[in-house]
Amino acid sequence: MPFPTLNTYLAHLSDPDRPASSVWLDSAGRAQGKYFNCTITSAFQPIRALGSSRIVAYEGLARSASAGDAGLSLWKLLDHAASDDESIELDRLCRMLHAINFFRQDEAGHSDLYLNVHDRLLSAVSSNHGHAFKRILDALDLPVGRIVLQLPTTTPQQGWLLNYVADNYRRNGFRLALNAASVAQAQAMVAEQRPHAIKLDARYLSGGVSLEPLLEAARVAGVRLIFKRVETAPAIATADVIADLPLYAQGFFLDQPQASLVTEAAVAA
Q1: Taking every annotated instance into account, which residue ranges of this chain make up the domain EAL (predicted)?
Q2: d(C-alpha 61, C-alpha 141), whole Å
């Protein structure tokens, strides 16, 4: 493991004589945490470069703990948290678990880790978004530069809030990925926010809306364009020939989320 401080921390978590805490290791070495009566762990879904199927990143996903990789998605828990403080606590716990479970695996290589930020947290955190998470990463000597914080879709009225939060995350050393609700919004984000990446639903690959202006703007600005929710072969076939620039994809057609990082870059499709 290339992260000795994390290795020391994992050894501490596996010590049977240590005091009880909110984070522990299961029999497979995966970090787990407790939120109310629910045990939470991590699953990871690759983000691939189209054409080569090369894995460039993984998205960390909160799952209920299970014997295999069949845990249920727990992101909706944040929608029902009783207070903003509990939402913040759960979000930070999930990000910490994902960082530990990602970087403890040698297969992480040089890939990035994308982590979601729930929309409730955009206004719930009073100031300095990302500072608490950065302190955790620094304490474990994990690279902030390989974390991409994925912000939720926002309305035009929330533009000021998005800019404020994005600025705080950048000041703490994080790169950002933005979720766009439309091609037009994605193009505006390229011009106004210039994030590391923009994620757009794969349904826009089926036609009806020209992608060429967005693709050209993303190329010029150096913004990575990721098509999410890829669930069919036609979407991949369309994306492969849509432009002569790098495109990226993520979805159940390519990969099912699982606890262990993928070791084989090839995909059946």
Answers
A1: 18-269
A2: 22
Query: HEC profile for 150-171?
Result: EECCCCHHHHHHHHHHHHHHHH
Burial class (CB in 10 A: 0-12, 13-18, 19+), 11: exposed
Q: Are strands 248-249 and 224-228 parallel, antiparallel or unpaired?
A: parallel
Cβ pair 129, 161 in contact under 8 A: no
Q: Are 84 and 124 in contact (CB under 8 A)?
A: yes
Paired residues of 63 in beta bridges: 41, 73
What's the pTM value of the predicted model, to 2 decimals?
A: 0.90
List Cα–Cα distances, 240 to 54, 96, 125, 176, 252, in angstroms: 13, 35, 40, 25, 17
Cα–Cα distance, 185 to 120 (Å, whole number): 21
Give pLDDT tens digits for 134-152: 999 999 999 999 999 999 8
Q: Is 251 helix (H, G, I), strand (E, B) or coil?
A: coil
Residue type, 32: Q
